[in-house]
Batch of 3 targets.
Target 1
Amino acid sequence: MKKNVVKTTTLTAQMAVTKMESGTDHVQVLPDNPCVGQVEAFRGLGYGQMLSTGSFEFTRHQIVRSQAVTEMRLPHSSLSKCKDRTRRFTFIVHESDLENFSRWLMEEAPQAAEYIQEQINAEKH
């Protein structure tokens, strides 16, 4: 059984926010008494906001990944069964091959559909 471990580190610091040309914000926290390893490095998407108290809060998004098992592989696609009781038909085509995408889709989608129909028929019997 997993236990959630909550660790809070409080810093006295200045914060610098730089608006980048790409439209994103670069946020730096500059501690008054820097110490290596005081805060573990992390990377992720999330929400950051300056609170009315003057403090800055960042909450990281939880990325939910459905755990899928590949049932069928085709040259440019795959059919997977996910733990959340869904099926995923994934098509991967390199940008340089986009001119062939329509043809491959017309060839591979019916094969995936036929496989699903066989699964449905097997469950009925």
Target 2
Amino acid sequence: MSLKKSFSADGKKCTVTFNVNVNAAAGAEKVYLVGEFNSWNETSSPMKKEPDGSFSIKKQLETNKEYQFRYLLDGKIWINDWKADKYVRSELANDDNSVVDTTVVKAPKAAKKPAPKSSATKKTAKK
């Protein structure tokens, strides 16, 4: 399982690729991505089955937010993403939800270096 994120140039959108590997899919025929971004609709986000038996889907999400989600296998089995950014307790079930964090990480500002002192400004005394 994995979450791959890429951010738009303006920093307003994050495209997240959700992936359920073949081991986690456990022979499922259909896998759905279900979460806050689709109002927990169990069938609105079917994942594409890859030739190797894994499943994937891309979702464009707003940045600087956290979204809870889970995967639904064959309409029966709920699983979490083993590589989610974090996990939170579900309010509806006695289980955890996976969380994807779309916070834009800003590079730290480089410290300004003081301007070098120029030797051309020194006056030389004549004898």
Target 3
Amino acid sequence: MKKMMIPKPSVQHFFSILILGLFLPLAAWSQSAQNQKEARQIFDIVYNKVYGPQGSTLHYDVNIIGILKTNGTIWIKGKKSRFQEDRYLSWNNGVKDYWVDMKKKTVTEYDADAPRSDKYMSKFTFNLEDYIYSVDKSPKYYYVITLNAKKDVKGIKHLKAIVEKDTYTPKSLKIKVLWFWTTVKITNFKSGGINDNIFVFPKDKYKDFKFEKGK
């Protein structure tokens, strides 16, 4: 994911505001620069709580423009990951990635580092350096962190994260890719204490499924 709320302005509108800001007094510009710095620092803390070596887990409810809705639980630790939904489950031990389709009763095995030809998921690529950050600290209990993509950045164009002030726990995300918005509600977040055994694929449990190699 390194290479993963409230509507936001377009990239073009954001840069027009930035240009106008050049004509404001220096004190106003310094405050804006400080806001960007603080926003990035807060976002880095949250990012490391999720993707740091200690690992993390959370439950998610996803809504893509009201058309696609899904929910599940995910575990992450270094190169290892696991997720489970009603139909799909996955165990990635850092070497092999097993995808289970409960409806088709299939298990597809991939090399963990193999590139995927999934055009939909490729639009959710994310690089921390591709964005301009800002933060609204006025809510009493939450930070509202906004990320606007720099010029010509592909994938995620805007992202807004709601984060608890005391614990830096992520509560929700709103993401814009191309013309559509994806809303992610986050609950049951836990950082650390993730046992490596949770990423081991329970092959015997699916011995009656059809096994196949992913392309």
